[in-house]
Write a structure and sequence with these properties.
By secondary structure, the chain is mainly β. 4% of the residues lie in helices and 49% in strands. The termini are far apart.
Length: 171
Amino acid sequence: AIPVGRLPTLRQAARSGGTAPTNIADLAISKTNGVTSLLQSAATTYTIVASNNGPNAVTAATVTDALPAALTNASWTCAASAGSACPASGTGSIAASVNLAIGGTATFTVNATVGATATGTLVNTATIAPPAGFTDRIRTNNSATDSDTIISPVADLTITNTSGLTSVVGG
């Protein structure tokens, strides 16, 4: 018997007298911008990787990243591994259909700017969902969140007098 929550392999399905179902997969997603804090008005780049750990290829899985209001001027690109497909580019939040081969990936690169008045913590979550009629038995890896503290820039100015003069006479 196949343990609950595990995807059957073709060998396991054959031993149990059946065939492996064709409508299951283990989709996963990761997301990071590689930092833990961001300055107001600073540019940031997120990398989101949607993947399919098998055992079947998936057509029309949905990748979603509803960008928080603190991120502005967002645009994104996507590159898929061999046998997989994703839309080439877009602006704003991501709501994209992807086709993922077994072991395939779709890598989204999101470029955005932190708002000039943004404060607090910037929390940004991406998800992947299987298409209708498909089962993803391991759903704990279908969401990824990146959190960054927003820092207000602080001016640190110094004035140095190098002329040697202590006063100036007008005239």
